[in-house]
Amino acid sequence: MSCVLAMFYRPGSAPITQSFFDELESLLAVLSTISTPCAITSDLNLCLDRPEDLSCQQLVALLEAFGMQQYVNQPTHDRSGVLDVVIMCTDLQPIKSTPRYWTSASPTIDLYGGSSIQ
Predict the structure, then answer these.
(1) DSSP characters for 2-39?
(2) Residue 87 contacts residue 65 (beta carbons within 8 Å)
(3) Rounded to the nearest 5°, which phi and psi values hold at 74?
(4) Architecture of the CATH domain 4-91
(5) SS3 content of the chain, % helix, strand, coil (to 5)
(6) Which is the most buried residue in 69, 95, 109, 117, by most CB within 10 A?
(7) Is 67 in contact with 32 (CB distance < 8 Å)?
(8) Domain ranges of the chain
(9) Could you give the CA distance from residue 106 to residue 101 in angstroms, rounded to a whole number?
(10) In the chain, count of helices (H) and strands (E)?
(11) For 65, phi and psi rounded to 5 degrees?
(12) What is the reported pTM?
């Protein structure tokens, strides 16, 4: 099984701006034109465990508009919070997700069909 894997980093020290969402939308638009299943892994430094946060709501709405979903649902930071993500198009569905606190390690996601992305 092959897939396109995109990775990016948003510094936690930088404010979350509309420009960030515009650039992410551009990336999602490109990925949506590719027939190969795709996944995005990122250190967003955006607390996704706060559904009342407007930035979180904007991200979720953007992903839904492109038929994508964020699958990490456990804290990825040593002080709690879901800051790191694995986002996949609907063609790929994880069967097991084992997030760890990010230091030098990365999350492991087992994909449908027995493939694994680390």
Answers:
(1) --EEEEEE--TTSPP-HHHHHHHHHHHHHHHT-SS-EE
(2) no
(3) -125, 155
(4) 4-Layer Sandwich (3.60)
(5) 25, 25, 50
(6) 109
(7) yes
(8) 4-91
(9) 8
(10) 2, 7
(11) -60, -25
(12) 0.72
